[in-house]
Amino acid sequence: MDYLGKYGTFGFSESLVIPLSDETSDLTLSDGVYTFYLPYALTIDKMYASLNSTCGGANVIVDCQLNGTSIFDSSKLTVIQGNNISTSQPDYSNPTVFPIGSKMSFNIDQIGSSTAGAGLKVMIHGHRTVDTEL
Fold it and tell me: Within 13 Å, how many C-alpha atoms sit on residue 22's CB side?
């Protein structure tokens, strides 16, 4: 379906749900917990993180990297302790465009201190910036 992104660019809408852990085990700090290469160019419109089981004592913080460099300017994806989903958008460069073939990877930078949290996922809502595929 054609989509007009928040930056005025057209493309086909895409939603990705990326599991960063299993559903029940306590989270652990980890770099490169999930990595993949995009088969098309993607402009990110919104990103969220969610937990199946809430964290306690500290927030869960997730970093998203493009070819090894964080896409976030200062704040990262954060699920506040006691919540199941991030409620605010991270601070990322506008517009965040991942070219075709980009390496996307995710790091778990912080977990809950008293209760780690479990079932971590990242949801990416965006649109293809060019209708081409690998």
Answer: 3
Write out the two tokens for 113.
């201190």
User: For strand 69-70 and strand 60-66, is the pairing parallel, antiparallel, or unpaired?
Assistant: antiparallel
3-state per-residue secondary structure call for 57-103: CCCEEEEEEECCEECECCCCEEECCCCCECCCCCCECCCEEECCCCE
Q: Distance from first CA to last CA of the chain, Å, rounded? A: 20
How many CB atoms lie under 10 A from the CB of residue 75? 12
Q: What is the pLDDT of residue 92?
A: 65
pTM of the model: 0.85
Q: Domain locations in the chain?
A: 2-128
DSSP 33: E
CATH 2.60.120 correct for 2-128:
yes
